[in-house]
From TrEMBL:
SUPFAM superfamilies: Glyceraldehyde-3-phosphate dehydrogenase-like, C-terminal domain, NAD(P)-binding Rossmann-fold domains. Coiled coil: none annotated. PANTHER family: BILIVERDIN REDUCTASE A. It comes from the Bacteria. This is Gfo/Idh/MocA family oxidoreductase. Residues 129-250 form the GFO/IDH/MocA-like oxidoreductase domain.
């Protein structure tokens, strides 16, 4: 049995706890939150010894691996501490707010020889898995042009002050739009080498962005666009479309995948599932457990996650400088 510690036993920590409970071979043995009363309530529901200091949790010998679901600006220190304690890591996205912090995490993981997986959950969502399978089959050829959207209500009930602060790694793009960016980069199958962008705060009184329109140039010659909008009032849009050499693919989380045939969209069977987030996170934990057991490599590693952060860094620079820039 692999013992799991949850660092950040709050809203998304509970999402992980519910998934962990359904993965054979995993057991929640420790949970951590600064609010002792809230941590105790979390443990009463999900199990595990209660800690209010993450360093104390990392000293618990029953903990083999941790999920880090803390505010973004805390990722670096907690991830490095976990690596140095010899714990495997599932680190929630974004990997960290800055490239320097990402580099520090990757260096610590390499020194320690532990497994790090970054929680880009799109890699485990059924519609995305089905899209990746179709692309890999060659049925519609190589993706050439892609568009991906994350347009949603921003001020959800779990929104916290750090989400509104650029210095703390907040903002719509780092928090939610990153999913649409990651999904496009992964399915296009090529690194991003150029970024154009318009970004800013249009709907809310906050320092961090709530909107970004992004143009991407890929190393293999493809191009893409991403919409990241956290609206005050509107309609949810989580769709994407890929124009490929020999056809097109459309993806959303209501109807799944559709392919272009004869000028019409034709649904792909078995490409959507209810409660997709929960099921994707179950797959995420199954993948990390397989890596820990030496059965498979980590599917979303620190180098890939750093590249995603490098694109977001380039978005902000491109918007400020009003020119195309290269991810660093």
């Amino acid at each position: 049995m692999t013992g799991i510690g949850i660092i950040g036993a709050g809203h998304f920590g509970a999402v992980h706890a519910r998934a962990i409970a359904q993965v054979e071979g995993l057991e929640i043995v420790a949970v951590c939150r600064e609010d002792a009363e809230a941590a105790a309530a979390f443990a009463a529901e999900h199990g595990g010894r209660v800690y209010v200091n993450w360093r104390d949790l990392l000293a618990d010998p029953r903990v083999d691996a941790v999920v880090i679901a803390t505010p973004h600006h805390l990722h670096r220190d907690v991830a490095i501490g976990a690596a140095e304690a010899g714990k495997h890591i599932l680190l929630e996205k974004p990997m960290a707010p800055s490239l320097a912090e990402c580099d520090d995490i990757n260096a610590a993981v390499a020194r320690a020889g532990v497994h790090l997986m970054v929680g880009h959950v799109m890699h485990f969502a059924l519609p995305c898995l089905k899209a990746k399978e179709i692309i890999a089959s060659g049925a519609i050829g190589k993706p050439l042009v892609g568009s991906s959207a994350m347009v949603k209500f921003w001020m959800e009930s779990n929104r916290r002050p750090w989400h509104l602060s650029k210095a703390d790694g907040g903002g719509m793009l780092m928090t939610a739009g990153i999913h649409s960016l990651d999904r496009l980069v992964w399915l296009m199958g090529s690194d991003v080498v150029g970024v154009n962008a318009l970004a800013g705060t249009f709907f809310h009184d906050q320092e961090a962005d709530d909107t970004a329109l992004i143009g991407l140039r890929f190393a293999d010659g493809g191009i893409g666009q991403v919409r990241s909008v956290g609206y005050r009032e509107g309609v949810f849009d989580y769709s994407m479309e890929l124009q490929c050499e020999n056809g097109a693919l459309r993806l959303d989380f209501d109807s799944g995948i559709a392919l272009s045939k004869g000028g019409k969209w034709v649904a792909v069977p078995d490409s959507i599932e209810p409660d997709w987030t929960h099921r994707a996170i179950i797959r995420e934990w199954q993948a990390l457990l397989a890596a820990i057991r030496g059965e498979a490599p980590v599917p979303v590693n620190g180098q890939y996650a750093r590249h995603v952060v490098s694109i977001i860094d380039a978005v902000y620079r491109a918007s400020d400088e009003r020119r195309e820039v290269h991810p660093r």
